[in-house]
Amino acid racemase
Amino acid sequence: MRRIGLLGGMSWHSSIEYYTKINEAVAGQLGGHHSARILLDSTDFADIREMQVAEDWAGNDASLVATAQRLVDGGAEAVAIATNLMHKCAPAIEAAVDVPLIHIVDSIATVAKRQDYSTLAVLGTKWTMLDDFYTGRLEEQGIRTLVPDEETCFEVDQIIFDELTQGVFTDASRARYVEIMNDLKARGADAVALSCTEIGLLVPPETAPLPAIDSVDAHVAAIVEWMMAE
């Protein structure tokens, strides 16, 4: 089994999901007392969040590159960023370390193509929805994307950072997210990507009003496939 290095803590609520689901998948495949070979570097998210708000992406690049290098120095044979938004820093990490980075967008594209989804609604932080690093990568793989209008994008983003990343999950926000998903469905989306790792905790895929790809589940599947490859 190969050893994965996880860049975690962004937020720790979703990092728990990664750790649990990777271990469950490995145990399910190998049985017995088997568990996953994981190195986890969990950052203080307050530091990352401060740089996000300041639009200091060079600072975030430097922080995550240092994290990835620590993981590689510790024996990680590949790295994975356990969050969607911080894949904005993926190019800097890929340039700095000499091990593969398992990209969350590629894992979502794999699931979408397997399920024959042609138009994917993307829900996540404002940067994930409005910047090109995420939707552009999906479009490059032949998947059309839809996002809410800009005002709604900022509303979705506010709920993420005021509530979800702090472990707060309310019925009102759940209902609002479902309403937004219905709007995107009406605009032509045949599935929705839950492109913030905490959204699946608020709206589990089975409760969404259209087929949903949970980014954590898709990413974990790709990570475990890499870990178990011969």
